[in-house]
Specification:
Blueprint: E1 4-10, E2 13-19, E3 25-32, E4 40-49, E5 55-60, E6 69-70
Antiparallel strand pairs: 1-2, 2-3, 3-4, 4-5, 4-6
Length: 80
């Protein structure tokens, strides 16, 4: 997990953000407003950066955008 996390609730959705020590967004998750971070109701993307903090890749859990993942497990999930 990153060094800083935050959460934003807007328009019926919760967006969770996780940043690395350089301030780069590394995980972005979205779920319905009432979703628990421990529940399988999130879509999560992982962002990858090079040594210069330039974005190099964006991947989704399970290779799709379905709301069926657990935010708390984001580090160990499969991305493609």
């Amino acid at each position: 997990m990153g060094s800083k996390t935050s959460e934003v609730v807007y328009a019926g959705f919760t967006t969770a953000l996780d940043y690395d020590i350089n301030g780069n967004l590394i995980y972005l998750g979205k779920a319905n407003k009432s979703a628990s971070k421990a529940g399988a109701s999130w879509t999560i993307m992982r962002l990858t950066y090079d040594a210069s903090s330039q974005l190099t890749d964006i991947q989704w859990t399970d290779g799709n955008g379905l709301l069926d993942n657990v935010w708390n497990d984001r580090v160990t999930l499969t991305y493609s």
